[in-house]
Amino acid sequence: MTDNSLNTAQPLGVLGSRPIVRRDSVNPRDRFDFFKFSLKRSSNVNLQLSKLKGNADLFLLNKAGKAIAQSSQGGNSPELLTRTLAKGTYYVQVLNRSKGGTKYKLTSSATAGDGGGGGGTGTSASPIDLGTLAGGLLTRSRDTAGSFGSGKYYKFKLGQISDLSIALSQVSGGGGMTLYRDINRDGQFDNRDTPFIAFGNGSESSNEPISLVLPATETYFLEVNRDSSANTMLYDLILSTTQSPGNLPTDPGAELATAFNFGTLNPGGRFEAKDYVGNVDGTDFYRFSLGSSTNVTFAKQDVAGDINTNITIYQDKNGNGILESGDTIGSLFGPQASQVLQAGTYYVSAKQANVNNTAYSLTISA
Length: 366
Description:
Blueprint: E1 10-14, E2 20-26, E3 32-39, E4 43-50, E5 56-61, E6 67-71, E7 79-85, E8 88-96, E9 102-112, E10 128-133, E11 136-144, E12 152-158, E13 162-172, E14 174-181, E15 198-203, E16 207-208, E17 210-214, E18 219-226, E19 234-243, E20 260-264, E21 270-277, E22 283-290, E23 294-305, E24 310-314, E25 328-332, E26 336-341, E27 344-351, E28 358-365
Parallel strand pairs: 1-3, 10-12, 20-22
Antiparallel strand pairs: 2-9, 3-8, 4-7, 4-9, 5-6, 5-8, 11-19, 12-18, 13-17, 13-19, 14-15, 14-18, 15-16, 21-28, 22-27, 23-26, 23-28, 24-25, 24-27
C-alpha cells in the first residue's frame, strides 16, 4: 500500500506511443492506487483498465490532484479514457468499487496531439494524416464532422498486417464512418477508390466499430459523417491495432506468373509464409519444385481475423501457365494434410471466401 497518495504514486515516466503496462490490485483495505506520468508536448493520452475480476473505476487527475476525467462502466467491464492533454504532469487513480476487490491491468500511451501524422485539414482533398499505425491505441479527441460529402477525412498506413478496430467514442449526436483504400495508389482520395472496405457508426447510445484484418501494402482513407438528423457531431476517434507480422519480402502474386517462388523443396526442408488474404488482396499464389518423389505436408493456421482460409494445391501439367480442370491436386480442408507428389513444379493458392479477411500461416515441408 505504498501507492495510496499522489506523493507515493507509481511512476510511469514520459508517455509515448509504446504502451506502458502495469498490473496490480485493489481491495477494501487497499482501495485505490495512484500512478504518475508526464508529457513532453500536447498529446492524445490513452488509458485503459482491463483484466478486471470485479468493479473498479478509472480517474485522470491534473498536477494538483483534481479529477479531469473519469470512466465508470460498472461490473468487470474495461474502463477507457482518451483525452488531449497539454505538456505537463498528470496522475491516474484506480479505485476499488467491488466488495472483494479485483486485479487489474493498466495500459497507458500517448500520441502527438495532431494525431501522430503529418498534418492535413480533414477535407477529402487533404485528409488528416494519422501516420503509420504500429500497434496499440491512437486517439483523436473532440473532432467534429459534417453531413455526407462534407465530413471529416483521415488517412493512415499499417506498419504490419494488423487486426484493426476503429471506433467512435464520447459521441454527441450520431453518425457513421466508411473505410476505403487507395485503389489506384495515387495518394489521393477520389471516386476511383470505391467500393468501400467497411462501415461503422456511433451515437450517444450505441457504437458499431469497424473491425477487420488488413494488410500493410495499402494506404487507407476513413470518412466520418454525421447523421442527417443530427445538427452536429462531436466525437473521439479511437484506432486500435494488433499486429500479425508477415515474413515475405514481396507480396505473393494473384496469378501463376507472379507467384511467390519458394524454390526447390528438398527432403527435410520446410517453407513458411505468413501473409494476408481478404477483400483487399483476394488470392496469394506460391510456387515450389520437387526434384524427386516426395511426401509433402501442407499445414495452415488462421492467425487473426476470419477463419477457413482455403488452401489448394495445383500442378501446371502442360506448362502453359494456365490452371485447367485437370491441374488440381487437392485442397486442405483441415489444419494439415500430406500427399506423395512426383518430381515437378507445383503451385499453392490461399484464398478467402466472400469478404472475409485473414492473417494466415502456411507451411510446406518434406
